[in-house]
Amino acid sequence: MDILIYTHEFPPQIGGAGAYSYELAKHLSQLGKKVIVFTRLYNNAENLKFDKRQSFKIIRLRFISRWKINYVINTLVLMCLLVRYTPKNLLISEHGSQQVMSYAAFFIPKRYLVLAHGSEVLVNFYKRNFAKKFFRRFYEKAKRIISISQYTKNLLVGLGFPEEKITVIHPGINTALFMEETNESHVLGIKQRYGLTGRKVLLTLARLDPRKGQDMVIRALPLVKNFDRDIAYLICGEGKDRPRLEKIVAACQVKDNVFFVGVLSEDQKILFFDACDIFIQPSRQAGNWVEGFGITFLEAAIRRKPIIAGNHGGVPEAVLDGTTGLLVNPTNPQEIAGAIIKLLKDEAAAAKLGERARERCLQEFDWTMVAEKFIGLLEK
Q1: Phi/psi at 363 (nearest 5 deg)?
Q2: pLDDT at site 21
Q3: What is the arithmetic mean of pLDDT over 345-363?
Q4: CA–CA gap between residue 40 and residue 11 (Å, rounded)
Q5: What DSSP string describes 263-309?
Q6: What is the pLDDT of residues 77-108, one digit of tens each?
Q7: What tens digit of pLDDT does each residue of 300-315 get?
Q8: Cβ distance 210 to 289 under 8 Å?
């Protein structure tokens, strides 16, 4: 067996780190590698349906969690899997699994690969407690650290990890899925449902979380309305921040301009991207949580959408300022409004940004290319 991927976040649960692990497992499998994913059991019926469709084996454990009482169970099961399947490589792929491994690494002799996203580095290395020592030792024991961005690599180098031990492999996008033609009738249906016909449409697709920046877009809307009173803003996703966002909508008097859509399926994503004129997500740092890269920017790009993004974390590697989108100060509503108005005023320039973003995705971020980079790394 070529690789065992250990992750607490995995579909059908929604999340960027889980999506990364899934796409990596799928494309490694398609390229002929034998892959097993060790992950968490969420909803048994959903899991069974999802797992049966995959070309690789998925082993789920109900006791996977960040509660320390379950760390022992996770460690014992992982050790049994390593003995039974003898994988050539073990990849620890996200925050939850890394927390468990920071303790389990004392008992697991096999060298492993660590996938560093960004937030887990800040959260765990900047804590002033005993756990930080365990986490550092876990990273030091890894045979290779794979960083999703140069930004995250720089964080690790700044913490004293040797540069030559860290390889940057950016996330990818399933270009085949996102390359299908626009379904005009379905897009028209979305526009009619939300009263968007004839209106310019902004779209954010992310968890409703302070660091994703929906609040700053809402605060920018009154300024944008001075240019275009019919501007509409679709907020796709769910999360703990919704009540606060609704209060900001009321305070800014933009109730007729903002629409909370909820969680989208993969098929719906494409339709909503096609229904918008600008994809906007001014992500920012919230506490120790950062945007390590931003796969959603690639999804918008492949649908030729001009992008406005926060100049923060690894986002400048996903969105090239002035080439594939515009980067803004994510805490400045005036600057955000200025970027929106700039793209609304110059539709030709906005279209060029979208075209260049799509070209870059096809050239650099197809998941097959990303998986081939992983294979090259594994075979060294």
Answers
A1: -85, -30
A2: 93
A3: 96
A4: 10
A5: ---HHHHHHHHHH-SEEEE----BTTB--SS-HHHHHHHHTT--EEE
A6: 888 899 999 999 999 998 889 988 888 888 88
A7: 999 999 999 999 999 9
A8: no
pLDDT beyond 70 at 366? yes
CA angle (220 as vertex; 217, 222 as ends), nearest 5: 130
CA distance from start to end of the chain: 17
Fold of 3-172+366-378: Rossmann fold (3.40.50)
**232, HSE (Cβ side, Cα atoms, 13 Å):** 21
- Token pair of 288 as six digits: 């120790």
pLDDT class for 336, splitting at 50, 70, 90?
very high
CATH topology match: 3-172+366-378 vs 175-364: yes
Residue 6 three-state SS: strand
- Quote the radius of gyration of the chain (alpha carbons, Å): 21
CATH 3.30.930.10 fits 175-364, yes or no: no
Instruction: Give the number of other CB atoms < 10 A from CB of residue 129.
Output: 8
- CA–CA gap between residue 355 and residue 367 (Å, rounded): 19
Per-residue pLDDT at 135: 85
Closest CA to 89 of 136, 146, 171: 146
CA distances from 8 to 71, 91, 101, 340 (A): 12, 12, 12, 37
Domain boundaries, the chain: 3-172+366-378, 175-364
Could you tell me the pLDDT band of residue 7, with boundaries at 50, 70 and 90? very high
Mean pLDDT of the chain: 91
pLDDT single digits (tens) 290-300: 899 999 999 99
Cis peptide, bond prior to residue 12, ω within 30 of zero = yes
List the one residue out of 163, 280, 150, 147 whose CA is nearest residue 217.
280
- 336 contacts 220 by C-beta, under 8 angstroms: yes
The residue among 192, 239, 177 whose CA lies nearest residue 214 is 239
Q: Which tokens hold the place of 18? A: 């889980």
